[in-house]
Specification:
The complex is a heterodimer of chains A (about 220) and B (about 525). With about 220 residues, chain A is an alpha/beta fold. Helices cover about 45% and strands about 15% of the residues of chain A. Chain B has 2 domains: about 20-240; about 365-530, Heat Shock Protein 90. Helices cover about 70% and strands about 10% of the residues of chain B. The chains are: A alpha/beta (about 220), B alpha+beta (about 525). The interface of A and B includes residues 20, 25, 27, 67 and 113 of A. The complex binds adenosine-5'-triphosphate (ATP) and magnesium ion (MG). Adenosine-5'-triphosphate binds next to helix 9 and helix 10 of chain B.
Chain lengths: ~220, ~525
């Protein structure tokens, strides 16, 4: 996959459990630059405490902990404590002893030590991307709804109709008459909107009843 | 004769021993049988001849003689007396008729006797022998004799008739005078015949006797021949058999000598072989030590691998953090200093681990005086990771100050073996809450006893006698080779001049409870007791 936008990680808090103090410390030092919060602990007990007191978005846990087992802890969290958090496990073993358990637990990724930090960050990205996207969609939807509440409702109806009826080549094949039959708008509104869109290069007339919708000419949404 | 003998001898020597004995037995048997048979036949033949001689030819002469006498005395003289009237006619008559009867009887008997057949086995034997000796010239019952006999018979009859005539005409003296004279004449002539017959018979007997002599000579000759032949043959075969025995004896003797030599050779080679085997077994031991060394090397390597893996992972993380910090523009002096410091510390510990490993496995290091405590600590250090992993607590009293002279690595090796064995037992024990190994030392002026005790339950009674044997193990193939204790014993006894032994004891391990425990002790002579 091409280069990921790791910036999306900055919205999330992560719990990191590793019993080797040096490794814990240095990995946490790297991760803290990318995520909102990193909670680095050496045991499951500490981890539980963190979970209770903070909002955690994902867990990174080592399988082979001193006197403990990461997979067992994840099971406990999922089935007994009702924490259903996405998780990544790290392990010093290349064997597949825990792989099956990990798959059953729907663990997001399985990282073999020594840890490649890029790999870990990419895993985190892939783990968070759907969450980010879902949020984005929600937001867009709300934006539209908000716009239609404050501007001309008919225009919004019409734009919705156009975008909904684009064919696979981004062509819109309807005459004004067709449009007016299906959407409750007046002809002047239709003409006015088409002109506006044509001026901005968004909807170009190719021939009669054939318009090309040009996505690239849409204005970039303001960053916030 | 000589050449025949040698040819025979040669022939005989080529015959197999078994056949030779057969021939000998056959010869003895056959020879004896033949000789016996021949003797038997000869005896019977001789008896026959004697019988014939006596019964047919000699005994009847007496009769003839008697007849002759009667003619001479009774008849002739009586007739003369009658003629001269010296006796009465009745007397004469009586004498004459008596004489007549006697003569008749004797003649009959004579004839009967001459014709008696001897018969039976003797005759058969004689005939057989005659046939065998091709003696066909049987003396004929000569014409001559027959004629004489018939003449005698005629004369007897005519005399008889005349005498009868005389007797009947005794009264007429004149008439019978002539007759008497005639009769006397005839008596004379019959006597002559009888004498001739006797002579003839005697001659016959003589000739018979000659035949008999011949028979005797021939059969004697044959017997001698047969006896000497069998004798020679028996001697010959016996000689070859004896020769055979001699050869056998010599070959046996030679065999015995050879075997004796072989044995002594074997003895000599055995000595050298035993030497070689001892050397071999020493070599094997060395190989075994090497194996065991490799095995524990594997274990230690495992240890080191693990001890390296962690700092290595952290080091890699530090290296990567430089990149991410740089990308984020956060690569400041503070970060660099602390990270480099950490990295160096990690590197140092890794290097130390490597040194441990190298020191332990450095081969053929010279003997030296070394600290027992340090050696034990090194052993516990080398097994630390695996003990930790299995949650086994190892406690070492650290009390001793003893120093011993020898190979430090070997003592480390021995202690490591004992710890490993304890670890193996404890690892299998799932009921035990606290798994413990205790190393204690006991020291006198001359020796130190190092004991490794574990609460794994002790050594089973049925195997305790065998645990120091090479390749004795109760563990699965992949787990143990059974060399550990054997090698430890060799090292302790041969190299360190010490002792190693084990015991099942009960020990508290600092708790309230008594645990069944195995205690392995190594007793070593002390070189010097440090301060
Ligand atoms: N501490 C102990 N407690 C109980 N049994 C023991 C103990 N130490 C040794 N044994 C018994 O003695 C046997 C022989 O031990 P040894 O060290 O010679 O061989 P091993 O451990 O089986 O194999 P290796 O040491 O070659 O890997 C072991 O298999 C075990 O049954
Ligand atoms: Mg052993």
């Amino acid at each position: 996959m091409n280069k990921r936008n790791l910036d999306i990680l900055s919205d999330f808090s992560i719990l990191y459990i590793e019993d080797e103090p040096e490794l814990l410390k240095h990995t946490a030092t790297v991760l803290e630059d990318f995520v909102k919060n990193i909670f680095a602990v050496a045991s499951c007990k500490e981890a539980l405490k963190v979970l209770e007191e903070n909002k955690i978005d994902a867990i990174i846990i080592d399988i082979n902990l001193k006197n403990e087992n990461g997979i067992e802890f994840l099971k406990e969290l999922k089935f007994e404590k009702d924490y259903d958090l996405p998780s990544i496990v790290t392990t010093a073993y290349t064997d597949t002893e825990y792989l099956l358990d990990a798959i059953k637990l729907k663990v997001e990724d399985y990282i073999v030590k020594p840890i490649n930090i890029k790999e870990l960050l990419n895993s985190l990205h892939d783990l968070f991307l759907p969450i980010v996207q879902e949020r984005e969609i929600n937001r867009s939807y709300n934006t539209i709804k908000t716009i239609s509440a404050v501007t001309d409702g008919k225009k919004v109806e019409l734009i919705k109709f156009i975008i909904k009826n684009l064919d696979e080549k981004s062509m819109f094949n309807y005459s004004y008459g067709d449009i007016m039959e299906m959407v409750d708008v007046s002809k002047p509104t239709v003409i006015k909107l088409f002109r506006e869109l044509s001026e901005k290069g968004i909807l170009t007339k190719i021939q009669n009843k054939r318009y090309l919708f040009n996505e690239n000419n849409l204005p970039k949404p303001s960053e916030d | 004769m000589k050449s025949l003998f040698s040819v025979l001898n040669q022939k005989l020597t080529t015959i197999k021993f078994a056949n030779k004995t057969k021939i000998l037995i056959f010869t003895i048997f056959g020879g004896t049988l033949l000789i016996g048979f021949l003797m038997f036949i000869s005896i019977f033949a001789l008896k026959y001849d004697f019988e014939v001689l006596f019964v047919n030819l000699t005994k009847p002469q007496v009769k003839l003689e008697e007849i002759k006498d009667i003619y001479q005395v009774n008849i002739k003289e009586t007739l003369s007396a009658i003629k001269n009237h010296q006796i009465s006619s009745s007397e004469g008559k009586e004498v004459l008729s008596l004489a007549q009867q006697i003569i008749k009887k004797q003649w009959r008997e004579y004839k009967k006797e001459t014709n008696t057949k001897v018969g039976g086995l003797p005759e058969f034997a004689s005939n057989w022998l005659d046939f065998f000796l091709l003696k066909s010239d049987k003396p004929k019952k000569s014409e001559f004799k027959n004629r004489i006999i018939s003449n005698v018979e005629k004369k007897i009859k005519s005399i008889d008739k005349k005498i009868t005539g005389i007797i009947s005409q005794l009264n007429k003296q004149n008439q019978i005078k002539q007759l008497i004279d005639n009769t006397i004449l005839e008596t004379n002539s019959i006597n002559i015949y009888l004498s001739t017959l006797i002579t003839n018979n005697l001659k016959l007997a003589i000739s018979k006797k000659e035949g008999n002599d011949r028979l005797f000579n021939t059969s004697t000759l044959m017997l001698v021949f047969l006896i000497s032949l069998s004798f020679i043959f028996i001697v010959l075969v016996s000689i070859t058999i004896i020769n055979h025995f001699k050869v056998l004896h010599y070959s046996l003797e030679e065999n015995v000598n050879r075997k004796t030599k072989e044995l002594s050779d074997l003895n000599i080679s055995l000595e050298s072989r035993v030497k070689k085997e001892v050397e071999n077994s020493r070599k094997k031991d060395n190989i075994m030590f090497q194996q065991a060394r490799l095995a524990s090397m594997g274990e230690v390597l495992h240890n080191i691998a693990h001890q390296w893996r962690q700092p290595l992972g952290t080091l890699m993380m530090i290296v990567q953090s430089f990149e991410t910090k740089y990308e984020k523009g956060k690569l400041d002096e503070k970060f660099i200093t602390s990270s480099v410091n950490d990295a160096l510390k990690l590197g140092k510990s890794m290097s130390d681990t490597l040194d441990d490993f190298r020191n332990f496995f450095m081969p053929n290091r010279a003997k030296q005086i070394f600290d027992v405590k340090k050696a034990i600590n090194k052993a516990t250090e080398l097994s630390r990771y695996q003990l930790e992993k299995m949650d086994i607590k190892l406690d070492f009293s650290q009390k001793t100050t003893a120093k011993i002279y020898g190979f430090k690595n070997e003592l480390i090796h021995v202690i490591l073996n004992l710890i490993n064995n304890s670890k193996d037992v404890l690892a299998l024990n799932t009921e035990l809450k606290e798994k413990k190994i205790l190393i204690i030392t006991k020291q006198t002026n001359t020796k130190i006893i190092i004991s490794v005790i574990d609460n794994g339950g002790g050594i089973k009674d049925d195997i305790i006698a065998k645990i120091f044997d090479p390749y004795f193990t109760t563990k699965h193939k992949s787990m143990g080779t059974g060399i550990g204790l054997y090698m430890s014993k060799q090292l302790v006894e041969r190299h360190m001049k010490g002792k190693i032994f084990c015991k099942n004891i009960k020990h508290k391990f600092g708790s309230q409870k008594f645990y069944d425990s195995a205690m392995f002790s190594v007793e070593l002579p002390i070189k010097e007791s440090g301060t």
